[in-house]
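In this supplementary section we document a worked example of the pipeline. Step one takes a protein sequence of length 340 as its only input; no multiple sequence alignment statistics are reported here. Step two produces a three-dimensional model, which step three serialises into structure tokens for compact storage. The input and output of this example are shown verbatim.
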Amino acid sequence: MNSKYTYTFLALSIVLLISMLGNISLGSVTIPITDVFASIFGTSENESWQYIVQNYRLPKALTAILVGSGLGISGLLMQTLFRNPLAGPFVLGISSGASLGVALVILGSGIFGGTFAIVLISKWSIVVAASLGSFLVLLAVVLVSSKVRDTMAILIIGLMFGSITAAVVSVLSYFSSAEQLQQYIFWGFGSLGNLSWNELLIFFCIYCLGLLLTLFSIKALNTFLLGENYAKSLGLDIKKSRFIIILATSLLAGTITAFAGPIAFIGLAIPHLTKQLFHTSNHKVLLPAVFLFGAILMLICDSIAQLPTSDYTLPINAITSLIGAPVVVWLLVRQRKMMF
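The serialised model returned by step three reads:
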């Protein structure tokens, strides 16, 4: 990594640490920073604060870091692969597939009714349904991509899969009760605070697998910036590299959607913000920078959503959209041409 970015990365790391401590400190009950440290290490004299930090706020902060960094990296992968500044982590229909899986569990359970519906709708059933929905869409996109040479055609196919799943969800919504619709809408708001330590461990393991595939693809990502024809002339296996990038994106974005719900605009805005600060297209620099930026922004959004000193919590999806959408508009107006 270029040494000229050392101080920038150091500053971002410090900001990440401050954002995490601030996120843990703020909430309906404000906990002093010194007590946050004590609670994390289990030495706090206030048992209630220690319980809150260890069982709720620390897992939520770690989830925010995984979600923000994972969405940012997924967005960068898609924008590089498709050479499209408006491509996001869910452009292949991954989020739509997850939404369809959850809709079949929540909205479709009304067909079975009674006791079966109550058993069917649980925390893990929603996670599994979202994961299966994402996987099936991924499988369809991969099968199609193996038959298609043009990368842009894969982008269009992904959008079409998204439209199909959205249509099925609309039909299910039409025949569902108000209670089922409300539960599905609440899932769509997104949430970072529902994971236990065991669930967070599973989330982290799959996240690491997606991250490893991403690190393996750094050379291919830099080569894709030059165009597919030039990449072929350099000896790059286009189909293999494209498959690995799509798989990495699907693991990251699909797992995030399964555990935290569909969270908008982070994956779209973070890569552009990062490029504005670092002024480079080298993914050896961009990937760690996007990781830090995404984690910081998600922690800040979550801190805002908590409405400190209040018992209310705003939907995290609404906060990320309110912050992300103006950022994208500002970048488009300011730069006119997005950087690759």
